[in-house]
């Protein structure tokens, strides 16, 4: 009977850990859905959208300017998929805004393209308030420009005018924030450092940011909220910029434009909208995991019960274990408190710990390379590889003629089908000799 409380507490701790792991596993499933939806959306945009803003007409092929505009538009919209994932990653980590090395280049600088001028008006228009940085420590003390020198801007407004230059002194005002202290990069785990994208040389970036960009990987030290969890109830009062919602809206706007011009059919429109809806649904589910922690009262009560049990455990074991009571109590304490710590770490799987989801790997090694591979080549013509000399469609029938040779051989469709039927009838059933 003396071990009955320990058994009950063990079940409760197991439930606590399994609930936390369920949240961790759900977060991984949502990121898998985002990767799949982003890949599908990019392929549909790149392969199924025509090269002209009008229905396809063989008699009027698209002009060079129309093809150029189409490639720029499609590449810009596909870049938004990566921007959506990266901005969601920073949002889940409590890092709001767009001034990050991996996010700024994907979304902020694209509004200078004439085809999609000012597609993020809140962040491009001088009348709109620039988002606050909630500054973290800078990796470099160099600023983009001196306070006396006007900063170069390429901000094109929707009306075609250019924004007036602004000085660094008006744009660069450090603030204090809960995550203002950052750990040294040398102390970070090597496995997570390897998931980062190599630093982009500034000479490859023609558009200078109006503020110094924060590093893409910026893990914080222990914050005040982590030391005193009761203060987490005030997080709702902190200012949050929901930027990825603007990206979602702009992707819908582009699909609506294609639908209005009647350049894609209804099934393609439905597939594009379904991909966007999937990403939005995953965003909602991830936000639900982030903003719905395990009830604080349950955690406090569980800790009180566990510590009370561990305090009185030696008095229950001393008659049975004798001198081994101390190591036995230590092992039991390590087991119970270890499960509690594991559940606490994986309850919110979006941080920088090794037990958290490697969202940097998802964004920079799964999503970004796939999008780059999709847009690396123009949409292929199936006839180029179907009727190429290297394609031997009847190789299983021991016919070494290529697709071009079969096309020029004078065979009829019925004769070719009989060749395939002969091969099928001569095959032995599975499992026979």
TrEMBL record:
- Record localization: Cell membrane
Entry's InterPro entries? YneE/VCCN1/2-like (IPR044669)
* Annotated TM spans: 295-313, 320-340
Annotated region Disordered: where? Answer: 172-194
The biased composition feature labelled Basic and acidic residues covers 174-185
* GO CC terms of this entry: plasma membrane
Q: Which molecular function GO terms apply here?
A: chloride channel activity
Membrane-topology descriptor: Multi-pass membrane protein
Primary site of residence? membrane
Q: Which UniProt keywords apply?
A: Cell membrane, Ion transport, Membrane, Transmembrane, Transmembrane helix, Transport
UniProt protein name: Uncharacterized protein
